[in-house]
Design brief:
alpha+beta; two-stranded parallel ribbon; three-stranded antiparallel beta sheet
């Protein structure tokens, strides 16, 4: 799981359509319409992902995403292994801030959390998938949240229908070479 943000940008002037084989002309001037937060979940071996677009990225927002994930996408799973970076919202305390203690504990007991190393966020497959999303779907000006949600929903449906799996090639021995400066010298 990972998240990112995307600025919502509107046009001041309508773009001029390009002639066949040419791109349209876009004015340099634009309107800032806020920021949308993108929560990405990836199940690499199944080739599934879930993307949620929200207004904020607080502890409570992260906790709500976790609750929804466990209730809707993995209702029968005893444990869900979650690989994430060390963002301050990515912890069990966020569940206790968002929910009653019994509910927070129930959710926490179903999670097995693994954090990527500080300078190893590229090990997080959800971050890689976010990059794909941004390159294929969010590579243009998007003026408002509803438009972004519609584009991302269509992208996610197409990507899930193709069942694009992530075949991870990075092995522990490769990590020891690449990340040798992070390992203690014994």
């Amino acid at each position: 799981m990972d998240e990112s943000s995307k600025q919502l940008i509107g046009e001041v002037r309508e773009p001029i359509p390009g002639k066949p084989g040419q791109t349209r002309c876009i004015d340099d001037e634009y309107v800032r319409n806020g920021v949308a937060e993108i929560f990405m979940e990836v199940e690499p071996l199944a080739g599934r992902r879930h993307v949620a677009i929200t207004e904020r990225r607080t502890r409570k927002d992260w906790a709500a995403q976790i609750k929804q994930m466990l209730a809707e996408r993995y209702p029968h799973a005893c444990k869900v292994r979650l690989v994430m970076d060390n963002l301050n919202t990515h912890n069990i305390a966020s569940l206790y801030e968002a929910f009653e203690p019994q509910e927070a504990r129930r959710l926490a007991e179903r999670l097995e959390i693994h954090y990527t190393p500080k300078h190893g966020s590229w090990l997080n497959m959800a971050e890689i998938e976010l990059s794909v999303l941004k390159g294929q779907c969010l590579d243009r000006r998007i003026p408002e949240m509803a438009v972004m949600q519609a584009h991302v929903a269509a992208w996610g449906k197409a990507r899930n229908n193709s069942a694009r799996k992530i075949v991870w090639q990075f092995k522990t021995s490769d990590a020891r070479i690449k990340l040798h400066h992070l390992y203690p010298k014994i």
